[in-house]
Amino acid sequence: MHEPNALIGFFLVLKGYAVEVIPAVLFGFFLSGIIHEFIPTAWVEKHLGSKGIMPIFYATLTGTLLPICCWGSLPVAVSFYKKGSRLGPILAFLVATPATSISALIVTYRLLGGFFAIYIFFSVILMGMTIGILGNFFKFNPKKIKEEACPHCKEQAAHCEHRKGIAGRVKSILKFAFWDMPRELGLEIILGLILAAAVAAFLPIGHLVKRYLHGPLAYIFSIIVGLLVYFCSTASVPLIDALIKQGMNVGAAFTLLLIGPITSYGTILVLRKEFGTRVLAFYLSAVSLLALGLGYVFSLVR
Questions:
Q1: CA-CA distance, 78 to 59, in Å (whole number)?
Q2: What pLDDT was estimated at residue 70?
Q3: Cα 55 from Cα 47, distance rounded (Å)
Q4: CB contact at 8 A, 176 and 76
Q5: How distant is the alpha carbon of residue 154 from its chain centre?
Q6: For residues 281 and 121, what is the distance between their CA atoms, to the nearest angstrom?
Q7: Cβ atoms < 10 Å from Cβ of 247
Q8: For labelling, which of 99, 120, 205, 263 has a CA lying 20 to 30 Å from the CA of 128?
């Protein structure tokens, strides 16, 4: 009897996600095209493919500043991967980019206060660095794009002086951004959107919130919902504010604000496809445990 209404609700949620996510994905595709065209493989190998902490720090800091969500960060991360980046910086980038942004920090400051905003910023840095450092212990070989050589100077065609000029570069950017990358990630992103809409439409989130807002179970609730439901780092701040005002454990609310934006279905599917099940399991476990620990500490020091 209620199936038509449920289906209508599903398609409305899917439409809302599409309106929110698709522009970010397209922007991410475009950035990946620019990276492919203008950033040489040697530069990526030097700054993101070398050993040590600095490549992870660069990836984490870049991720916190870029104004894109997890969906938009996926093609950028895959581009770095194909250029020769190690696994650690890629995972750090995938953590830091969706977890916060300048706009998210401003909204957090306005609604939840300065301490909350500062704490989440440094928490994201800590999470990105920790997961990046641990990620580099995986035995993993970067996947490199076979770049064509210029017939004139034998250098990489994308970066030599014999290109066709502006028109040639624009064509190369657009081809990689809106043909190569959609073929690589398009199916996973679409499937991720459908799964996210299905969970949001059919899972009784309101009932769960009312029942498990208080006490230690709130942390378990935050981890489960954070893994199942996609939250934008900026748009989710008012929701977190509302949950806290209704009596939700502030540490659990902080945990939810961290996990939700980082673990979209798109990220899960792309990680599994590009890096394998072991890396995906590590990523989700590390994100959950670190968010849980940081949330609990926040409840103590706030």
A1: 13
A2: 66
A3: 6
A4: no
A5: 37
A6: 25
A7: 11
A8: 205
Kindly report, residue by residue over 220-246, the tens digit of the pLDDT.
888 988 888 777 776 677 778 877 777
C-alpha distances (whole Å) from 210 to each of 142, 205, 218, 242, 250 are 46, 9, 10, 12, 15
Phi, psi for 180 (deg, rounded to 5) = -65, -50
User: Can you list the residues of the chain whose pLDDT is less than 70?
Assistant: 1-4, 21, 24, 28, 41-49, 65-72, 103, 140-164, 184-185, 188-189, 192, 195-196, 199-200, 203-214, 234-235
Closest by CA to 98, choosing from 71, 69, 125, is: 69
Q: H-type helices in the chain, by residue range?
A: 3-38, 41-47, 54-65, 70-83, 87-99, 102-112, 114-135, 166-175, 181-202, 205-211, 217-228, 236-245, 250-262, 265-275, 277-301
The first and second tokens of residue 300, run together, are 């103590």
Token look-up 């991360």 returns: 77
* Residue 296 confidence (pLDDT): 94
Q: What's residue 178's pLDDT?
A: 85
Beta bridge partners of 51: none
User: What's the rounded Cα separation, in Å, for the pair 1 and 302?
Assistant: 47
Among 207, 160, 125, 162, residue whose Cα is nearest residue 37: 160
Contacts for 264 with CB less than 8 Å, ≥ 6 apart: 70, 71, 98, 192, 196, 230
CA distances 233 to 264, 272, 287, Å, are 12, 23, 15
